[in-house]
Amino acid sequence: MSVQTAKRRLSPANIEALKGDRPIVSLTAYTTPIARLLDPHVDFLLVGDSLGMVLYGLDTTVGVTLDMMIAHGQAVMRGSERACVVIDMPFGSYQESKEQAFRSAARILKETGCSAVKLEGGAEMAETVAFLVSRGIPVLGHVGLMPQLVNTTGGYRSVGRNDKEVAKIRRDAKAIDDAGAFAIVIEGTVEPVARDITAELRSPTIGIGASPACDGQILVSDDMLGLFNDFKPRFVKHFAELAPAISKAAEEYAAEVKARTFPGIEHTFQAKK
Ligand code: KIV
User: Fold this and answer.
1) Which end of the chain is more exposed for a tag (fewer CB within 10 A), N or C?
2) What CATH number is given to the structural domain containing 204?
3) Alpha-carbon radius of gyration of the chain
């Protein structure tokens, strides 16, 4: 990474400073061409471990590895120059101890050149977040619905629907905020709770299925681009309909190949006379 590139990019501190100024814009990216298209429009790109489900067809994010995150992180860094790039720490790469978390996060920063990591967890991860931040690794927190915990929580249900859940998510968000996260993703959380947490915290909240009350918003790009015909949760808006456009293009290509109308003369190399 050149010094010039590092200077142009938004930093985690720049993102943190946007609280109270204007809404923070973020999308996921996993590849160079998509990062290139999104980069001018977002404050930060998240290389989310959702790539396990979106790109690799896994049922959950639990099977995603550190090597997968680093390979896709490098691709997104190559495709972007302005946005802050944050890379998810995958399941099993940080929960064992704060030392394990530091080793994994340091690998991510050294091998990709990105500026920050994201990890899921509330009060139980606060000590780890403080350990990373105090040793030069900016951390984006992630509370509320935590997809890596699917095997213990039992699913992808929104949270904050009873007093016990409300108390837990408020405690979690405060602990990660106090630990020094530069921003905190709040996923799948009912609006009044997301609103209260946003008002309480020093750091900006980034909502996904957590209402407009958050300081910023993030969506999985493939969701908002309409790449899935069969999956549209309530919190997703399709800003494009790419699935039918891709199907139609493939259908037309197949028909033209079968009819021998593609490739045409304009797509064909001729020998020089
Ligand atoms: O993995 C991911 O893409 C995420 C976002 C949905 C916040 O964690």
Assistant:
1) C
2) 3.20.20.60
3) 21
